[in-house]
């Protein structure tokens, strides 16, 4: 019944994907896009900042607290 364990990345699946060549490429593209937006649309980005902070609060609450499931599972 014992299944052979597959090699795990030491920091989890997300970090393993981010360390791949596609993950690095996506990170570089998103960084370049962020710099472009910051340089050419600074006024628009600063005017949207309060709304981004307001939408970040419920998103952080949901994702950081896992939807407030108060069961006794500790393997999340």
Describe the secondary-structure layout.
Blueprint: H1 13-18, H2 21-40, H3 42-64
Question: Key terms for this structure?
Answer:
76 residues; mainly alpha; 0% strand
Describe, in plain words, how this protein is organized in 3D.
It is built from three helices and no strands. The chain is mostly helical and 76 residues long. 64% of the residues lie in helices and 0% in strands. Keywords: Membrane, Transmembrane, Transmembrane helix.
The helix/strand class is mainly alpha
Q: What is the count of DSSP helices, taking H or I runs of 4+ residues?
A: 3
The count of DSSP E runs of length 2 or more, i.e. the number of strands, is: 0
Q: Give the percentage of residues in beta strands.
A: under 5%
Specify the helix fraction band.
55-70%
- pLDDT below 50 for ≥5 consecutive residues: which ranges? none
Radius of gyration: 19 Å
- Please, how many domains? 1
Compact summary:
The chain has helices at 13-18, 21-40, 42-64.
């Amino acid at each position: 019944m014992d299944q052979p364990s597959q090699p795990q990345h030491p920091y989890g699946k997300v970090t393993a994907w981010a360390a791949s060549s596609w993950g690095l490429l996506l990170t570089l593209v998103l960084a370049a896009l962020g710099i472009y937006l910051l340089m050419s649309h600074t006024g628009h980005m600063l005017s949207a900042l309060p709304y981004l902070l307001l939408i970040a609060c419920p998103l952080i609450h949901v994702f950081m607290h896992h939807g407030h499931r108060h069961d006794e599972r500790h393997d999340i």
